[in-house]
Amino acid sequence: xxxxxxxxxxxxxxxxxxxxxxxxxxxxxxxxxxxxxxxxxxxxxxxxxxxxxxxxxxxxxxxxxxxxxxxxxxxxxxxxxxxxxxxxxxxxxxxxxxxxxxxxxxxxxxxxxxxxxxxxxxxxxxxxxxxxxxxxxxxxxxxxxxxxxxxxxxxxxxxxxxxxxxxxxxxxxxxxxxxxxxxxxxxxxxxxxxxxxxxxxxxxxxxxxxxxxxxxxxxxxxxxxxxxxxxxxxxxxxxxxxxxxxxxxxxxxxxxxxxxxxxxxxxxxxxxxxxxxxxxxxxxxxxxxxxxxxxxxxxxxxxxxxxxxxxxxxxxxxxxxxxxxxxxxxxxxxxxxxxxxxxxxxxxxxxxxxxxxxxxxxxxxxxxxxxxxxxxxxxxxxxxxxxxxxxxxxxxxxxxxxxxxxxxxxxxxxxxxxxxxxxxxxxxxxxxxxxxxxxxxxxxxxxxxxxxxxxxxx
Length: 458
Fold this sequence. Notes:
This protein is of the alpha+beta class. The chain has three domains: about 1-170 and about 310-330, no CATH class; about 190-290, Chitinase A, domain 3, CATH 3.10.50.40; about 330-455, Tetratricopeptide repeat domain (Serine Threonine Protein Phosphatase 5, Tetratricopeptide repeat). The protein contains 21 helices and seven strands. The termini are far apart. Mean pLDDT is about 90; it is low at about 1-45.
């Protein structure tokens, strides 16, 4: 299509969406479904997809392949997929990445200023990751310098704004309940605290005895007795007792929900009443609290984007948006699979037939037969079925395919002969006998079907 802008790809920006990418470069060990895929090869390159006349670069394909390899190399479900299923996932995800990046950077009209980037880093990165943990975070994201981090954060801000704009155009809204419940969890998950705690176990005392002791200690703390002294005397937490119950930079998720809900809702300087937990009671003093949560309005935008991306509305929006691009699959096998998936069975059959003629891979002739059957192109099904039988006479399914073609668009007597030949070949194989019987029944040959029933009873 003319007048369409060339897609701009900004390297180094992580994609907003979960990327499920497969690379052709992984080789037979991955595609054959063996237990452990090979790592992507360093010197591989491949061009299988054009968008608006330009190939998606090998660098992008390899970048996505590396991400996928690390994420899914031990996933049994993905390993069980065949080569063609995974390659089709590759196409969908690469297309989404390229088009979304073009939308964000060229079509959405959103911007991100340097001050917005600085504010984001100061509020949400440096508060969350202090000291050496900041370097660990940067390394995990592939940021060699703070300038690299600024580029990455700017990309994230742009994507967030762009997808939020699309969500609002699609009238995605939140209920007050969704926002209230989500924001409370968000605040708890985006806070770290320094605390002192005393754990009173109910292991060697009753729960009632544990409660009474915890309340006694709490009362003494309220009367300004030293927390660390009492922790060393009474706490049953062996890991922190000698330090006076001190825990630095505690995050939610390491204790029970009732503990987290109380501790991460507290302010610095607050002594909490005894918290009943599964194994006793916790007495907590919050020494320091660092909050890196969003404001309620900021969180509402995040939740709106999340709701949109996880909804059918996003899929509808993306399909509409995709119509603005010329997308061409240049790899023959990938193209054939995609045609079949999109129910363009006639074209898929033709593509698979051409692949078989070129490569003599039986998978392709099987797919050609199935595609022509679904296209109800009986002439081609008869032709390809006959070719398949000639070259692979032991495969019973080819007899069934050709017989289906003959029943619907050819010689019914020949169809019956093919089924009889198949019946003789399968012997007592109940799976194939059942398929043959169903075809007899579908075409009104009840007498032949009954003979199979009698054979199965023997």
